[in-house]
Design a protein that fits this description.
The protein has about 140 residues and is an all-beta fold. The protein is built from no helices and eleven strands. It has a single domain, classed as Jelly Rolls. A hairpin with a 3-residue loop joins β1 and β2. The radius of gyration is 16 Å and the shape is globular. The N and C termini lie far apart (about 55 Å).
């Protein structure tokens, strides 16, 4: 019986692109970072996606912006409020938020503790058009 579970092993493994030291591990210290996130640009590693590891204190988050590709937010810990095209969506640990290409959005930690999330940009490079300078 064939499994359709998304975590089932594939029939044949596709090798991952390697990193400079051959370990297939990209160390945090080698990634770009700012006060909210550490980022991996897929183009640097032969990947079609780019990833942000977000760690935001209560009330923190980026200003409104837009991308020409979809973005997927995987909430790992805490609570996030996403404002997507004027709609407010609250998500918590274990939830996944999908943002369509071209959809203006912003998010902020609306919980009482840290917000940890992984933002998957379906592009080999980050391309962000900022629509405002702050979330306040």
């Amino acid at each position: 019986m064939k499994s359709t579970h998304p975590l089932s092993p594939p029939a044949s493994r596709i090798p991952l692109p390697s990193v400079a030291d051959g370990s297939n591990v990209v160390r945090r210290r080698s990634m770009a970072c700012d006060r909210l996130a550490t980022g991996l640009s897929g183009a640097d590693h032969g990947l079609a996606v780019s990833i942000l590891n977000v760690n935001a204190a209560p009330g923190e988050g980026p200003a409104a912006h837009v991308h020409d590709y979809p973005e997927v937010i995987v909430v790992q810990q805490g609570q996030v409020t996403c404002v997507i095209g004027g709609r407010e969506i609250v998500a918590q640990a274990g939830d996944v938020v999908i943002i369509d290409a071209g959809e203006p959005h912003r998010f902020f930690n609306s919980g009482e503790g840290p917000l940890l999330q992984v933002d998957i940009h379906l592009s080999d490079r980050f391309a962000t058009k900022w629509l405002e300078t702050s979330i306040g």
